[in-house]
Structure formats: C-alpha cells, structure tokens
Amino acid sequence: MNIGIVCYPTFGGSGVVATQLGIALADKGHNVHFITYNQPVRLDFISHNLHFHQVLLEEYPLFQYQPYELALSSKMVEVVEKYQLEVLHVHYAIPHAYAAFMAKQMLKEKGLGVKVVTTLHGTDITLVGSHPTYKPAVEFSINNSDVVTAVSNSLKETTTKLFNITKEIKVIYNFIDTQKYDKAHKEECKRFSLAKPHERIFTHVSNFRPVKRVEDVVRIFHEVRKEIPSKLLMIGEGPERAKAEKLVKELNISEDVFFLGNSTEVTKILCYTDIFLLPSQTESFGLAALEAMAAGTAVISTNTGGLPEVNIDGVTGYLSDLGDIQDMAKNALSILKEDKILATFKQHARAHTKKFSLENILPVYEGIYTSCYKSKV
Ligand code: GMT
Fold it and tell me: Is 302 in the pocket of ligand 1 (CB under 6 A)?
C-alpha cells in the first residue's frame, strides 16, 4: 500500500512509535511517506520505499504564529496526489488529525479519496486536547477520522470521558522491535564503565516535562542510595532538567547522578540498567518503560493512566501512588536486596514485552489500513 505517516519528529513517544511503524511497514514492502517538519530522529535512513517530505513554513510579518496546519494540510494534498497515497496515518491528534481532515476535503474536490487513521497518544487528549482552547477542534477531528486508535485501554476510557466521541476507538498497544533488544542483550554490556560491581544502576528517560516528575526521580534515587550504593542516569532534555540538576546539588549526590541529554543510544544505555524509574503524573502507555523492560530492566512507576497495562505490579516491577516517593524507594530496595530477586524481575520484564512485539502489532495496523481503504464510507 501507499501510506502517509504524519507525526512529531522528536524524541517523544508518539514520534518514536510512528517512525518505527513506518520503517517496519517499508520493510514489509509498503511505500511509506513521512510528512512532518523535520526528519524524524529515529529515521536514520531513507530508501526507495521510505520517503520524507518536509513541511516548510513561510515567514510573513503579519504572522505572530505561523499557520503550521495550513502548510501541513497543503503538503498532505501534494504528497497524496503525487504518490497516490491510500491512507494517511496521523499520530497525535493536535493538529495532525485536523490538518488531515482538511486535506481530505481538498482532495475530495479534486475527485481523490484518502482514508485518515488517527492514533491518540496521550497528552493530545489528557493535557492539551481537552483544554477548552482546542477541545472542539480535537473532538471534531477524532469523530471525522475514518479510524481512531488509542495506545491503551486507559487512554480510550479517558478519551470517551473527556470528549463526546461518536466513533469507535480501537485499542492498539504500542510496540517494540524485540529482536533489536534480543541482539543488544547478546552483545557485551560494558557496565563497568559506569559503575563498580557492587553498585546498582538506575535510569530515567523522558522529555523532562512537568508531567514526568523528574524531581521525584531524583528523590526516589536519593532514598535508595542511602541504603545501596547506586548511580542514576538521566536521559533527555526538557524544561524541568534545571530543577532536577539543582535538586541533585542540594542533596549532595552530584557524583552519582549523570545528566546525559538526548540520546539515540538508549538501547545501549538500558543494557547497564537495573531499575528504570517512571514516577509520572500520568502516562497513557509509557513507551519508555516498555523499552526499558525489553532491555531487561525492572520498572518502578506510578499506577497512573495506562502504566498498569505495561508494568505488572510485583512481576515486572512495582506500581505506586503518584508522589509516594517512600513507597517507590521501598519497592526498589525490595527488588535490589538480593541478586536472585533482581534477576527474576528483569527476566519477567523482558518476557512480558513479547506481548507488545512488532510481529504481533504490525499486522493489526495493516489490517486496519486495508479494511478502511476498501470501505466506501
Ligand atoms: O510523554 C510525553 O510527553 C510524550 C508523548 C508523545 O506524544 O510523544 O508521549 C505519549 O505517547 C507515548 C507513545 O504512545 C506514550 O508512551 C506516553 O505514555 C504518552 N505520554 C503521556 O501520556 C504523558
């Protein structure tokens, strides 16, 4: 099939999922066209059937804000027409689903049809989408998509609570390429370059937005470190990074906490990790936790949003109430108290990720594309 993928090209989970999906579809022989403002960060190559079309914005003195939706929908029309796209799969409702609806209307005028599949990822619903500034347009574009998917049952429930949804929402879990992690698992992990044999390694990966509660990450680590010598790797960039660094200094633990910035080598970093910390205010899914689990890491997280669908309490890690730093530290310590217990959690975490494997999820998306393309409506 000829498929257009629209996403944010950043390190955020929705962009990562969209990129991995596009690459996997191209591997299976589909023609895939990414349409976005920059080359997606995880799209490190382009091939004969994997293309990138950049949405460019024109400066004009009158514009305080440049109209990205207009440029995006115009680019969608151009690419659909030129490459005979059958489906536009938009990731993150704002503004992608709205722009896709507009593109579809413009194409209709030209006698061309394209189906729009919208995948809801989380903050497009929970934090931004339901704000009165955007709500009517988000609700409209969800209801006017041909197919709507959500990345967890929790996100589906939240969407139906927050919006007046007339469309069926299908739940399709996020996925990972488990083979990539299996390969990384077999390679030698140079753990000694970061920590001494008796030390434990904690990792947090995020965009350091307030929703990620990065100060909680530092506080949990601080509690654990009182009992067990440990290191903390903080991966990512974002508005809360400075606060987290300040707290690390205040707690006098700078020598054991490393802020490594954005990284395309997360798989390698995760191979060093014993425990992944994700104390988010909410997560529709928690792709970062799933990636950590695939690398064989136990997860200490909150029990918010879709996290209980990914991290199984007492099996792959533990779930705690939002902000309960003591409980999260206690749970981490209980995993780390014996090598055997840690090894069991790690093994369970890895095994559980098979449920979210690319081989299982990819055919579900392909099925959706085929059936919606064939449908007349
Ligand atoms: O977590 C973020 O702030 C980034 C955001 C995104 O859109 O990239 O992530 C959301 O989508 C991911 C992929 O589906 C999910 O794994 C994350 O849980 C979700 N984030 C939130 O719900 C906060």
Answer: no
Q: Is 293 in the pocket of ligand 1 (CB under 6 A)?
A: no
Which of 25-34, 90-99, 128-137 is predicted least confidently? 128-137
Instruction: Give the model confidence (pLDDT) of 201-236 as tens digits.
Output: 999 999 999 999 999 999 999 999 999 999 999 999
Residues 194 and 165 grouped into a single domain = no
- Whether residues 12 and 75 fall in one domain: yes
Report whether residue 19 contacts ligand 1, using a CB cutoff of 6 Å: no
Give the residue, out of 91, 285, 293, with the most ligand 1 atoms within 8 A of its beta carbon, to mutate for a pocket test: 285
Give the model's pLDDT for residue 376.
Answer: 66
In this structure, the residue with its CA closest to atom 21 of ligand 1 is: 283
How far apart CA 346 and CA 327 sit, in angstroms, is 20
**Residue 112's CATH number:** 3.40.50.2000
Q: Are residues 170 and 275 in the same domain?
A: no
Record the tokens describing residue 278, joined without a space: 């994700």
Please indicate, yes or no, whether residues 318 and 364 belong to a single structural domain of this protein.
no
Describe the strand order of the beta sheet including 2-6 as a list of residue ranges: 50-54, 31-36, 2-6, 87-91, 115-120, 147-150, 169-171
